[in-house]
Amino acid sequence: MKTIGITGGVGAGKSTVLQYLEEMYNCRIIMTDDVANLLKEPGQACYEPIVRLLGSDVLLPDGAIDRKRMAEMIFHDQDLLKKVEAILHPAVRSYVEDAIASERVSGKHPYVVVEAALLIQCGYGTILDEMWYVAVTDDVRRRRLKESRGYNDDKIDAILASQLDDASYRAACGIVIDNSGLPEETYRQIDLAMRENHHE
After folding, report:
1. Number of CB atoms found within 10 A of residue 162's CB
2. 30 with 113: CB under 8 angstroms?
3. Which of 117, 129, 135, 153 is a good FRET partner for 160, with 20 to 30 A between their CA atoms?
4. Residue 200 above 60 pLDDT?
5. pTM
6. Bridge partner residues of 132 (DSSP)
């Protein structure tokens, strides 16, 4: 079984790549954002530490963490953001490691693909066989974020400033998938990467 990490900036179109891998190569896809949301649910590993940190203000009437409220609380407070990340990141990584281990045992999928915006920053390179970077030009990214999410230029500028630059992604990832063009072009690059790495 092979493990592949997929990363890239906001608006790069990582979901296009993940969808194709899932359909064509029978991959188990693990989205770290989904894992983080799961671990924030009542009774899960990160629930109590986050409630202790942020206080009962962050809870919905049913006792669940209000994700929107939490995002607002940490958005303007770097110190609080770092503390939340220190709770979430190790727990998410531990969950991913366990999931990979159980997939190795079950043998159901030939590949496990882990998607994470912070794949490089959280050191996933040490536990995954390959790191893939989904790249797009800034022009394409801007257009997509305006069309799909209605973001304005200021918001997009802020997002781009907060992310790793293209060179850092390329330096950390062995495979680059350029997703600036038509989907067929992207699929062709994925097929090539899968073939060249003896995946088939």
Report:
1. 9
2. yes
3. 129
4. no
5. 0.90
6. 6, 175
